[in-house]
Design goal:
The complex is a heterodimer.
Chain A lengths: L2 H5 L13 H31 L9 H4 L2 H26 L3 H33 L7 H31 L9 H31 L1
Helix pairs in contact in A: 2-6, 2-7, 4-5, 4-7, 5-6, 6-7
Chain B lengths: L1 H8 L1 H10 L3 H29 L10 H35 L8 H20 L17 H4 L4 H29 L12 H33 L13 H34 L6 H14 L15 H29 L8 H24 L1 H7 L3 H31 L5 H27 L16 H31 L37 H7 L14 E3 L5 H18 L7 H20 L5 E3 L1 H9 L5
Antiparallel strand pairs in B: 1-2
Helix pairs in contact in B: 3-4, 3-5, 3-16, 4-5, 4-7, 4-9, 4-14, 5-7, 5-18, 7-8, 7-18, 8-9, 8-10, 9-11, 9-12, 9-14, 10-11, 11-12, 12-14, 12-15, 14-15, 15-16, 18-19
Classes of the chains: A mainly alpha, B mainly alpha.
The complex binds protoporphyrin IX containing FE and copper (II) ion.
Chain lengths: ~210, ~625
């Protein structure tokens, strides 16, 4: 395939993200990468579960967490996953404008999520004096949730960079796999959050 | 061709070429040179350890330095010598064995190498900045969390950076093997070396993130005041052990499986027979990979997990001996009735069988949890793992290097010198480590700086030290062989061994696009199939046409350099927060390079048909 066919395809295939060998490789490689990320988060969850009782008699999950805030955050992130699906749907329809629009909405929702998370951490530190260093539970909590937050931040930067970079030239066979993997990443972050919501917050309140 | 051209272009251009290369064959050489370099450093450390233990109450090196030696020896050998040497073989061979022109992610391939390289350098800088890590290669807490100075910090940052490189390399080979195979190269026609690279890569993918997390927790505890392993604040030191061994046991199979694959290819080539029990071999490889994840706690029998957990892990561990046994018998049956040629590669491979079998046997002994209370942390364990790692991994690397040297360099390593290197190494290896089992059974603990007089440990330790010198002699002869071969030996053609697999169907060393035309694979041992049909080489699967190749890039080097700089920042910001500047600069370089990579189009280039035709006229391609 010549470079021109990749950058200015005469006709877009139905799956532009997998139309080139590079695209196929990226697609598969990214799935493997997410497999490794799964082990990463599994290890962090394991550590958290081993240490969430080590509160040293101070701030415990029950008296710290407020489910209202976390519920709003969950809704924001779940919705952002949905909007990124819309974006990919429009990619397959070759409607670049709509794809960009839905990605912008995705980024906005992600930003809101991140804002709430920063507020949450700020709140714990200043109202409860609950920090990374106060107990093993504190270390485990901030590490697990913070790793997820870091992933959200990285994803936001990534998707934003893609939106800006390709704004002028539209969709082609070179950038379609990039968009697609970024959206996969975004779903993955969302799934991890569902587990955090359950294991950290729900079980922390109830269990 | 490449060296001649390079000489004309001058040294700076050659260096630039290697800094930016994304060619798997050149990356293989980078892995080989740096892995070989670290192997020599690790070997030197081993010699110092053995000299210290030569006689009772010795004072050759101080107790503190001794702790640094054993830590750095283990860490260096596993992460900086064995792993990269294995990656050297994989990079040199696997794309050729499946008929590919490059790996799936050439850019990431280069990134993986540079991350490993800078991580290894970072780790070794510690020698010059106030002390190397000294808490053992297993780095157990709280010994590690309370170790004074910055040694352990270097361990954490160095392994974190090089571990990221390994993970990337693993993903790269997985995708390469799934997506880049030539037409007709079905899974069940892949050579065993490719198969074992595939399984190993899967192990890397699922094992290394556990180490990543362990290292992060260790980093946070040591550098940012968290309390994961601080019992006073509710921390739990056993978490480190679990994370380390969830990574660590698969890691030992990551080390051995690729060489199982190399041995399989070598046995079959030099017996002039197809591998006996090919599908059983594939099955056993996959099974070992799978079981390798179920047994990590056999390193923790004495921690106090309780009899139920101990029993489960004991049984699971013993189960691994079954697929391993399948392999041993299949290798024997491959040789059975074959026209055996005892080349140096074959010699190392044949020597591997009894050596490794002894290691497997002591492994099963160790797996008996109740008995392990006696063996644990004695020289018996040291004997066990050196039998499997030296007798398996190191023998395998030597065998693989002898076998594929012509493909990498276009010359066969001198056979006489090859055998001359083998014998002292082989004898020295058994002298060094066999006796250590008995030292262990007599109660000599591992990792002790001195042993005492009059406890019956003198002779055994002396023999062990003498053996180590024999191994050093063998290694030096091997190095001499490399130099001698480069100067004296003649160039050879594409197929010096009359071998069976695809890599031998192209010139040695291959042109940078590997295959002029992608080959059509018609069976297991594809080249042999064609030879048996009376053909000289492979039948092409495509007409001669333009070839698409990736572009070189300096970005992988820059990304890794950024991590290297940031590593220092993380280590020293504990003393003085202005070191955080180094963190920002380093991460800035890394993230900036990543952004550049993401935003700048890089579509590679084409090699045109005319150039290929010119190359063919010059003799490439047949
Ligand atoms: C039949 C196969 C094997 C079995 C049943 C086995 C079993 C064991 C057991 C139970 C231990 C723990 C001993 C203790 O600390 O008390 C151990 C340690 C070890 N094994 Fe194996 N093993 C096998 C093969 C291998 C292989 C193939 C390798 C590497 C290529 C390997 C490398 C190691 C290492 C490095 C240690 C010691 C780690 C340390 O404490 O520093 N083993 N093995
Ligand atoms: Cu093990």
């Amino acid at each position: 395939m010549s470079h021109d066919d990749v950058l200015n395809p005469k006709q877009m295939p139905h799956d532009p993200e997998k139309a080139t060998l590079e695209g196929k490789n990226k697609f598969l490689g990214f799935w493997f990468f997410l497999g490794g990320e799964t082990v990463l988060f599994a290890s962090l969850f394991g550590t958290y579960l081993a240490l969430n009782g080590s509160t040293q008699g101070e701030n415990t999950p029950e008296n710290l967490f407020g489910l209202e805030l976390v519920f709003i955050m969950t809704m924001l992130l779940l919705t952002s996953s949905l909007t990124s699906v819309y974006a990919m749907y429009h990619m397959k329809n070759h409607d670049f404008g709509k794809m960009q629009l839905w990605l912008v909405i995705t980024v906005a929702l992600g930003l809101a999520f991140l804002g709430f998370e920063i507020y949450e951490f700020y709140h714990y530190i200043h109202e409860y004096d609950f920090t990374f260093r106060s107990s093993a539970f504190g270390s485990a909590f901030y590490t697990l949730v913070g790793f997820h937050g870091g992933h959200v931040l990285f994803g936001l930067c990534w998707i934003t960079a893609l939106i800006i970079r390709n704004q002028k030239r539209g969709l082609n066979l070179y950038n379609a796999p990039k968009y697609y993997t970024a959206s996969l990443y975004w779903h993955f972050i969302d799934v991890v959050w569902v587990f955090i919501f359950t294991v950290v917050y729900l079980m922390g309140k109830v269990g | 061709m490449s060296t001649a051209v390079a000489q004309k272009r001058g040294l700076a251009a050659t260096i630039w070429d290697y800094l930016t290369t994304v060619d798997h064959k050149k990356i293989a050489l980078l892995y080989l040179y740096s892995g070989g370099f670290f192997f020599l450093i690790g070997g030197l450390e081993a010699m110092l350890i053995r000299i210290q233990l030569m006689k009772p109450d010795n004072n050759f090196i101080s107790a503190g330095l001794y702790n640094e030696m054993i830590t750095m020896h283990g860490t260096t050998m596993i992460f900086l010598a064995a792993m990269p040497l294995i990656f050297a073989l994989m990079n040199a061979v696997v794309p050729l064995q499946i008929g590919a022109r490059d790996v799936a992610f050439p850019f990431l391939n280069s990134l993986g190498f540079w991350l490993f390289f800078f991580g290894g350098i970072l780790l070794n800088v510690s020698w010059f900045t106030g002390g190397a890590p000294d808490a053992g290669w297993t780095n157990y807490a709280p010994l590690s969390t309370t170790s004074p100075g910055h040694g352990v910090d270097y361990y954490v940052m160095g392994l974190q950076i090089s571990g990221a490189g390994t993970l990337i390399a693993g993903i790269n080979f997985l995708v390469t093997i799934i997506n880049m195979r030539a037409p007709g190269m079905t899974y069940m026609r892949m050579p065993l070396f490719t198969w074992s690279t595939f399984v190993t890569s899967a192990l890397i993918l699922f094992a290394f993130p556990a180490l990543t997390v362990g290292l992060f927790l260790m980093m946070f505890d040591r550098m940012f005041g968290s309390a994961f392993f601080d019992v006073a604040l509710g921390g739990n030191v056993i978490i480190w052990e679990h994370l380390f061994w969830i990574f660590g046991h698969p890691e030992v199979y990551i080390l051995i499986l690729p060489l199982f694959g190399a041995f399989s290819d070598i046995f079959s080539t030099f017996s002039r027979k197809r591998l006996f029990g090919y599908s059983a071999m594939v099955f056993a490889t996959v099974l070992i990979g799978f079981l390798g994840f179920m047994v990590w706690a056999h390193h923790m029998f004495t921690v106090g997990m309780g009899p139920i957990a101990n029993s489960i892990f004991a049984v699971a561990t013993m189960a691994i001996a079954v697929p391993t046994g399948i392999k041993i018998f299949n290798w024997l049956f491959t040789m059975w009735g074959g026209q055996i040629k005892m080349t140096s590669a074959m010699l190392w491979s044949v020597a591997f069988i009894p050596s490794f079998t002894i290691g497997g046997m002591t492994g099963v002994m160790l797996a008996a949890a109740a008995a392990d209370f006696q063996y644990h942390d004695t020289y018996f364990v040291v004997g066990h793992f050196h039998y499997v790692i030296v007798g398996g991994v190191v023998f395998g690397i030597f065998a693989g290097l002898h076998y594929w040297w012509p493909k990498m360099f276009g010359k066969v390593l001198n056979e006489k010198l090859g055998k001359l290197a083998f014998w002292p190494f082989f004898i020295g290896f058994h002298l060094t480590f066999f006796i250590q089992h008995f030292l262990g059974l007599m109660g000599m603990p591992r990792r002790y700086w001195v042993f005492l007089e009059g406890q019956g440990l003198e002779t055994g330790n002396l023999i062990s030290t003498i053996g180590a010198f024999f191994m050093a002699i063998g290694t030096v002869i091997f190095l001499i062989n490399i130099v001698y071969t480069a100067i004296k030996e003649p160039k050879v053609g594409g197929d010096p061994w009359d071998a069976r697999t695809l890599e031998w169907s192209i010139p040695s060393p291959p042109p940078h696009y590997n295959f002029v035309q992608t080959p059509l694979v018609r069976g297991l041992d594809p080249l042999w199939v064609e030879k048996m049909d009376g053909k000289k080489g492979m039948t092409p699967a495509e007409p001669l046409g333009d070839i698409h190749m990736p572009n070189g890039s300096i970005l992988p080097f820059m990304m890794s350099l950024g991590m290297f700089i940031a590593g220092f920042g993380f280590i020293y910001q504990v003393d003085n927060s202005s070191w955080l500047i180094a963190v920002f600069i380093g991460m800035g370089i890394t993230l900036g390079s990543m952004l550049t990579r993401s935003l700048k189009d890089d579509l590679g280039h084409h090699i045109h048909k005319e150039e290929l035709e010119a190359d063919i006229k010059k003799g490439v391609g047949k």
